[in-house]
Amino acid sequence: MPHARGRAQADLERAGPTEVGGNIMTESTAGESVATQTPTKEALLSAQGLQKHFPITKGLLKRQVAAVKAVDGIDFDVYKGETLGLVGESGCGKSTTGRLITRLAEPTAGKIMFDGKDISHLGTGAMRPFRRDMQMIFQDPFSSLNPRHTVGTIVGAPFHIQGVKTPHGVKRAVQDLLKLVGLNPEHYNRYPHEFSGGQRQRIGIARTLALKPKLIIADEPVSALDVSIQAQVVNLLEDLQNELGLTYVVIAHDLSVVRHISDRVAVMYLGKIVEIADRESLYSNPRHPYTVALMSAVPVPNPRRREANQRQRVLLTGDVPSPIDPPTGCRFRTRCWKAQDICATTEPPLVVREGDAPGHQTACHFPVADNEEVAGRTAAA
Ligand SMILES: Nc1ncnc2c1ncn2[C@@H]1O[C@H](COP(=O)(O)OP(=O)(O)O)[C@@H](O)[C@H]1O
Ligand code: SF4
Ligand SMILES: [Mg+2]
């Protein structure tokens, strides 16, 4: 962990809120500020057939009558040094996926490989060394910090819990972390309520970094923050990644945040990954109707692009079906304007389509072609 004030801090001082405010979804901002790091293609984490069904029980005997199929068989890799964005509407299983891969939840089926080791069913003791390597940042910086503890206690807790020795003491280590995330080390004795939302998220990030994790799962890390502050926290996460060689999974329902920060993006729908690709490939050639619909929901600030976007507008309406009894075949078929008979009977596999970029996988029988006219389509029940 560097002791000097990081580049993250210097960058944030340069970038005032007016400079970055609200721009995180623009083309130019996204294009210019994306991490320059080239990820290696070695998987740090690999999920294979991962499943989480929450049982629904009834009566005194707690007989299982059904299950919420929150995550229903997903496969993906997270490469060392990359950021994988995980995106989809609320309830599609993003947080559960995050909890599964950090083993905060026990998978119903499937396998999780971390750094070459199978951690799918490790117990608390066996998981302990891995706990240091994988950390989560949560959405709500207000509820994730104990209001009765000082910043020093909060950020220093991981050292005590894991029994980690620090060369110059825990206080100095905590103060270094506060500097690293752009906070004043003199805030050590302050309480969370004395900070703004953005500052609290920085405290949460400092705590996350304490044990030098390899993988950080950020679950909607900026959703609870003002738009102007969102850009700053996203920039901080990117700078920390470059400085510390971190690997991220960033969960968001908002495609704009994911676009800015991700090297690759996985789109989830009702417990399944429906499309996964390099960011460029996904945004320039989305194939799955759901991805197209999600994308056309993102506001476009540039007027010329806005016009082009209007021509490609799909209205995503209607509710997501229940994960207790998802539609047969393709789960998106009840909202898809391209659905045909086969979509109800046969689940489309997640595969690379002919002509698509390597690694661009889509689960659809009738993927959207380049320049296909989709304007005015309504993706609804
Ligand atoms: N502990 C739980 N018990 C029962 N159902 C759950 C539990 N946690 C999540 N779910 C359900 O699993 C589905 C996926 O939830 P979640 O992973 O939180 O989605 P997302 O993060 O994409 O909004 C939802 O239908 C949710 O209600
Ligand atoms: S498989 Fe069929 S229903 Fe599903 S997204 Fe593709 S076209 Fe639509
Ligand atoms: Mg969630």
Automatic annotation (TrEMBL):
Keywords, comma-separated and alphabetical: ATP-binding, Nucleotide-binding, Transport
Gene3D superfamilies: P-loop containing nucleotide triphosphate hydrolases (3.40.50.300)
Transmembrane domains' residue ranges: none
PROSITE patterns tied to this protein: ABC_TRANSPORTER_1, ABC_TRANSPORTER_2
Entry annotated with the keyword ATP-binding: yes
Domain ABC transporter: 45-295
Domain of life: Bacteria
CDD domains the UniProt entry points to: ABC_NikE_OppD_transporters
UniProt xrefs under InterPro entries: AAA+_ATPase, ABC_transp_ATP-bind, ABC_transporter-like_ATP-bd, ABC_transporter-like_CS, Oligopep_ABC_C, P-loop_NTPase
Any Pfam family matching the protein: ABC_tran
Keyword ATP-binding: yes
Region (Disordered): 1-24
Family: Belongs to the ABC transporter superfamily.
Name of the protein this chain belongs to: ABC transporter domain-containing protein
